[in-house]
Amino acid sequence: VQLQASGGGLVQAGGSLRLSCTGSGVDLAGTAMAWYREAPGMQREMLTTINDGYGYGGDVTTYVDSVKGRFTISRDNALNMIYLQMNSLRPEDTATYYCNSAMHSLPWGQGTLVTVSS
What we know:
Blueprint: E1 2-6, E2 9-12, E3 17-24, E4 33-38, E5 45-50, E6 61-63, E7 71-76, E8 81-86, E9 95-101, E10 112-117
Parallel strand pairs: 2-10
Antiparallel strand pairs: 1-3, 3-8, 4-5, 4-9, 5-6, 7-8, 9-10
């Protein structure tokens, strides 16, 4: 099992980025997934979750207050991918971003670095 997050980079405050997560050896469509981030000197934190893609009723998502209204998690079951659309980025969003299951039960990938300049 391998997770790979991509799409990070350097962006000015107020800008946007879209992160992608691919998985090999794991069916992301059938897994409740989440995005996490780890800022320098800080603990890794969960930002947002999305339910597995096989249930009824469509996507169910959760967000921590710090990203609510700015970040959007989504999935493409056919492509076995998870996305994180990040808008209105702030310098405090600077961190390495990771995807994993909502129970963080999969091996951690390398993450993708997001740097937001003021």
